[in-house]
Amino acid sequence: MANPIPSACCVVLAVVVVYAQRHSQQDSHIQYERVGADVTMKCGSMDWDAAVTWTANGTDIDDSHLNGSYLILKNVDLTQSGQYSCYEGSSWHLKYQTNLRVGVPPKEPVLMCRSNNYPKGFYCSWHLPSPTYIPNSFNISVIHGTREMVCEKDIFPKNRCHIRYLQLFSTVKYKVTLTVTNALGKNSTTLTFDEFAIVKPDPPESVVAKPVPNNPRRLEVSWQNPSSWPDPESFPLKFFLRYRPLILDQWQHVELSDGTSHTITDAYAGKEYIIQVAAKDNDIGTWSDWSVAVHATPWTEEPKHLTTEIQIIDPHLSQRSGDNLPQPPPPPPPHSLRTLPVLSLFISSILHTLRTYHASRHRCGGGQSHHPPSRGTCPKKPRR
Amino acid sequence: MAAADIPSAALRHHDLCSRGIRLARKMRSDVTDLLDIYVERQGLDASISVAAVDGVPAAAAERWAEQSGTQRLLDNLAAYRAFRTLLAQMLEEQREQLGDADAELGPALAAVLLQVSAFAYHLEELLELESRGAPAEEGSEPPAPPRLSLFEQKLRGLGVLRELAQWAVRSVRDLRQLAKHGPGTTLEGSGTALGLPESQ
């Protein structure tokens, strides 16, 4: 007679395997539905009139949502995403399971292409204007004339890819199409552009501003080419510098066709300045974003002691040491000397008022101000 | 070349490159303005696409960075000689179409034609300095313009000007590369001329 124990083990093992397979298949089932849709779930192969129990994320679902053994979810919303399971009434055998994911089809994606490393290539990046709440896949195609180019996906960020230029100075436009797809629909957008139009360097780096010793109206500013710009010698950049004292809103602007430094010569003495720089290829493309702002205050002289003024007014105040004889009262100072401190205060306040007045009137390019007009243009960024 | 001439050759080379860059940039600016005038006077849509036009030298270059200095000069010279002919044809067509009634397009075309001619001459000087000499222009007569409808002529003209604007940018880059590497040097890549005849 055969040993019954190994046979029983085999049977148990077979049951476990079958159960695991069924369970894993049911686990992997995902059902995508649109927000607002009506969803009907069948309990596997169970008859309509079978007694079943439905659960959502382990919690029993009220019978009011059942139509026979079918689960009816009306006008689903995002909160109803989850794992839905159906059990046979008396045996509690799992008959059906699904992972319901409620979401929306994708809206038209936002696509941007830019060359910050001309002439090596350009990159395109994208995002969805609003979430879909379910997984999306993106496909990008780049066509140049009749040639389809490869856009190599970046590891980070994930929504970006880059293309190497195979040709330079081409008049043929590039056409980039991005398609986003999910289980509920798809959408796409297309960009068409010239090689030159998308050239936009990164902002200048390492911007430094320092006062100039013994020069109360100067600030020395220096910066570096963006490290992403591969060949500044062959493809030189020009720069746009803007600066203003913190107390004013109006920027001064200077455009510089070469070099990576500039001396501001019309700074207001003693005022803290904010300074930024932007970059552009000398011949094509658009200006970069502004660099990180730096702050600097021009050099100022050390303030003098106040006792100097008193000595001028009354030179007779000092006494010889050891002299105990009472001194006759000093004669009153001449009228002009008595009014000197009052006069100095008056003059100081006039000067301050004048400075404030001229500061509020001062505009780019000069005008009536006695400050030297700044070179360059006034708009926020110059034209190409 | 005598040793004493080498520094002056380098200076002349640098000077020619710098002036050439300025000429090319000015030319590009004027061609851009001319494009605006042309599109307006010819009643075209500025965004219209124009297919590659026969006989118009394309500025597009593959492996541009690998070109030798001489190759750059030869490509540029061939292009601007072609543009000289094309612009002259356009000027003739424009005079036939619009006559003296057009006070803007004709003079603008003529001004750019002059700059193109001057730039071609400038390139010939650079080639002389490279001890290559400018190749002779092929044929004594320019090729006859193709028979096109009026609209096709307008589109062709647009294609010519767009390509010329592109060439002007390329020329700035080419001359900068040339200035960087000095006179008479051959860069990596194909450094030989195409076998065009030397000038006398």
UniProtKB/TrEMBL annotation, chain A:
Domain Fibronectin type-III, chain residue ranges per copy: 203-303
Region (Disordered): 318-338, 361-384
One GO-annotated biological process of the protein: positive regulation of cell population proliferation
InterPro entries according to UniProt: FN3_dom, FN3_sf, Hematopoietin_rcpt_L_F3_CS, Ig-like_dom, Ig-like_dom_sf, Ig-like_fold, Ig_sub2, Type-I_Cytokine_Rcpt
Record keyword Signal present: yes
Protein name listed in UniProt: Ciliary neurotrophic factor receptor subunit alpha
Highest taxon of the lineage: Eukaryota
Organism: Meleagris gallopavo
Residue ranges of every copy of the Ig-like domain listed in the record: 36-86
Compositional bias ranges of the Pro residues kind: 326-335
Pfam families xref list: fn3
Family: Belongs to the type I cytokine receptor family. Type 3 subfamily.
Automatic annotation (TrEMBL), chain B:
Keyword Metal-binding: no
GO biological process: astrocyte activation; cell surface receptor signaling pathway via STAT; ciliary neurotrophic factor-mediated signaling pathway; muscle organ morphogenesis; negative regulation of neuron apoptotic process; negative regulation of photoreceptor cell differentiation; neuron development; positive regulation of axon regeneration
Stretch forming the signal peptide: none
Compartments, as annotated in UniProt: Cytoplasm
GO CC list: axon; cytoplasm; extracellular space
Alphabetical list of InterPro entries matching this protein: 4_helix_cytokine-like_core (IPR009079), Ciliary_neurotrophic_fac_CNTF (IPR000151)
Disordered as annotated region, ranges: 181-200
GO molecular function, one term: growth factor activity
Any Pfam family matching the protein: CNTF
UniProt KW keywords: Cytoplasm, Developmental protein, Differentiation, Growth factor, Neurogenesis
Function statement: CNTF is a survival factor for various neuronal cell types. Seems to prevent the degeneration of motor axons after axotomy.
Family: Belongs to the CNTF family.
Protein name: Ciliary neurotrophic factor
Annotated organism of origin: Meleagris gallopavo (Wild turkey)
Upper classification of the organism: Eukaryota, Metazoa, Chordata, Craniata, Vertebrata
